[in-house]
Amino acid sequence: MSFPAPKLTAEIGVFGGSGFYSLLDKAEEFWVETPYGLPSDKVTVGNIAGRSVAFLARHGSGHTLPPHMINYRANAWAMKALGVKNIIGPCASGSLQADVMPGDFVVCDQFVDRTTCRKDTFYDGPVTTHVGMAEPYCPVLRKILIDTAREINLTVHETGTVVVIQGPRFSTKAESRWFTSLGWEVINMTQYPEAYLARELGMSYAMIALITDYDVGLEGDPNIQPVTHEEVVKVFLANNDKLKKLIYAMVPKIPKKASKMCADVLKGARF
Fold first, then answer.
1. Is 213 a catalytic residue?
2. Is 250 a member of any domain?
3. Could you say which of 25, 147, 215, 221 is catalytic?
4. Could you confirm whether 109 is annotated as catalytic?
5. Is residue 44 part of a domain?
6. DSSP state for residue 121 in the 8-state scheme
7. CA 247 to CA 145: how far, in whole Å?
8. pTM of the full predicted structure?
9. Could you write out the DSSP letters of every residue in 133-190?
10. How many Å apart are CA 241 and CA 136, to the nearest integer?
11. Tell me, what CATH number does 134's domain have?
12. What is the per-residue pLDDT for 26?
């Protein structure tokens, strides 16, 4: 089965999360057909500092797709079809630790998958493929994110583990207490399988978590209330300009190619 080639190409991809539905001012929008159906929305392709960038709102521009209904395979495939080599994945996220505060940015280096029944691989056979994910986020992109965030004076945490829950419900206090006790810093609903699918296709991917809330509040602090969707969007919108400034500042520094670790992912992965 063949699909028409996309109208344009792009070097760099950006997935927009809750409250982040646009990035590029002068750009062209179009649908990208994939073997897995349509992506979450039209892809917007434009230019930042002489680099071609593709933007896709993972929940759709009207936030019509809850986390468990996103077509993650179509989204990743669309980026690959456009020629994207490096992807930035901003996400509205909750904090599990007191020192990771709302308004902070976290460049996660690990994830823990707690989702269920999501279509999370392009390799269903007949060739058995096992892709390694010891380091799930591209170290090259992560360093660029961290260095750029510091240059523009953002509060950034250089490492962090994000636990990805199924959604659309938020955590119970017991679940959140458990995640916190394990030392994980960030909680989110969309990082898996997005980050992994990008790796399967040989693209580099880095997550930047914008902390919007303390998950269910902090133990023993009655002044911090459990998260609500309204509060998540409110904090994210208040920090959107910071996030866009970070992306615009880092784009010129992104390599033309995916890092070797990501691009060569299938070497030794197949029987």
1. yes
2. yes
3. 215
4. no
5. yes
6. -
7. 8
8. 0.92
9. -SS-S-HHHHHHHHHHHHHTT--EES--EEEEE--SSPPPHHHHHHHHHTT--EEESS
10. 27
11. 3.40.50.1580
12. 80
